[in-house]
Write the structure tokens for this entry.
Amino acid sequence: MSTGNEVVSEFKRTQQAIGKAQAKAQDALEILEHRGVKVSADMWARADACADLEQAERWFKRSFDVERAEDLLD
């Protein structure tokens, strides 16, 4: 039998994972801006909506090399 605490814990883990993905995606855009690459409001919105940590990590790694912000997101 599951308890209410298990449901709350699973919800909390999910929210934490989403928060990590959003933070990593935002970090990628901050790196672009630091490099002098213009980042649009639409791209910030996509970073804020990112819930996939693997995708955010890909964006983060690409942020060091891409020339245009549009090339970052897949």
Notes: Residues 4-34 form the longest helix (31 residues). Residues 37 and 68 are 6 Å apart (CA to CA). DSSP finds three helices and no strands in the chain. The radius of gyration is 15 Å.
